[in-house]
Amino acid sequence: MHNVHRAANWFHCNGLQDIKLVNCVDLQLLYETSVDSTALSADILQIATHCLAELPENVARGIHSFQAKLKPVDTAEWTHEPLTGKLLQMLAQTAKLYAQCYAEMSPNASLSELCTAMTSSRWQYAIENRGFRAIWFDSGADNQARSLECLAHENSSRSNCVLTPQVEVLPLELQCALDPLLNLLPMEYKDAILAIEDYQTKLVDVCLDVGRIPYVYIGKKQRFVLNKDGDVVTKDTIDEILMNLGGEMRIGNDNRAGIDRQLHRISVMRSKTDEVYGLTMRVGRALRNAACVLTDLLLSDRHADKSVLVLGHPGSGKTTLIRDVARCVSETMENVCIIDTSNEIGGDGLVPHECVGWARRMMVKSLEAQAGVMVECVQNHTVETLIVDEIGRKAEVMAASTVRQRGPRLIASAHGDFRALIKNPDLKGLIGGSQQVIVGDGAAAKSATKSKLQTQRGG
């Protein structure tokens, strides 16, 4: 077999849920275990090139053709009509190639048994992860990314020929105290939120505007109205919430306020006369171990001096990830400091939320001062890793460049995606900028635009 993820998920989704593998070996796992531990998803050509001195004639072309023909096949049609003869022939040729590769790799009995157990585990992981592969990091090999099946079984103990997995996968732990936020609201709004099923994990935003019906978001495109009678929010309601918060003086120059030692954020809308007429109350949550997916980038020696930029659209989880990155890196004894412009990473108040671990944080009086505080932090506090949430201005990009030139590693987030960042003249310096280059005819033909003048990353 080769890459059982898709097959496991397909069988499970189509009702065949009690399948038990017997003497099955995934060639990817055998290759990763015995040949190259860094190859988590070796394709069959890579494996065949290693195993066979000479590839059978047209095998590469045949495999690519088989994969191209198989992808568009609607699996629902498999039960209504047989596969075409040409596709069946390709399947037979591919199966023969799998057998040849296994024979050439000739695993001994111990390795064969190990890979059989790994394949059974991979089948189960694929079902649990809906067809996606499971990976973890090998702390004994500089946090190198490995297939979870390999880590779970390679150093396992044997008991009655049953392999016992020997790896601990850290679970995600959601940390969120909603009461301090809900207690700011009038009782009728609070009761309506408490009546929402699983509101502790679903609640995202509370939106209140004078003269309009109050509502909350409990997921993407999921709006829930708080007042079924059609009563609208009054100015007195807004003023009452601000009073419960501690008064309008709690609102900063960025029109945001927080709750002491909490991650929630209250943002206001102002009229032209500076009067508050709207509130957006964003629920802040810490997700412990969210940064585990970046373990190799954050903790391995080979990446110790490399900076990390997290890109994503609003609400995609950038700040949640950055919080746990601060905890993860600071627990390695590194001197970590957070530039917390809106007190959104560490929460409001003098004492930061416990989710940032040993990381220190510097508050910023205004958005305009963020770039200066970044440089000041490096100059004054012997920082090894500097963490900044939401770099969005040219001055901050210049400050980030200054920080890197002085030595510390920079971990930051920005809005958008890679393509949008390259096109942004103010922010493209975060990835080294871009430059116009002229490519050859072959490269131009392979590009989407077919143009010989192309934009490439400059750094």
Automatic annotation (TrEMBL):
Record bears the keyword Cytoplasm: no
Record bears the keyword Nucleotide-binding: yes
InterPro entries tied to this protein: AAA+_ATPase, P-loop_NTPase, Spore_III_AA_AAA+_ATPase
Positions of the AAA+ ATPase domain: 304-426
One Gene Ontology MF term: ATP binding
Keywords from the UniProt entry: ATP-binding, Nucleotide-binding
Pfam families in alphabetical order: Spore_III_AA
PANTHER family: KINASE-RELATED (PTHR20953), P-LOOP CONTAINING NUCLEOSIDE TRIPHOSPHATE HYDROLASES SUPERFAMILY PROTEIN (PTHR20953:SF3)
Protein's name in the database: AAA+ ATPase domain-containing protein
Protein species of origin: Phytophthora megakarya
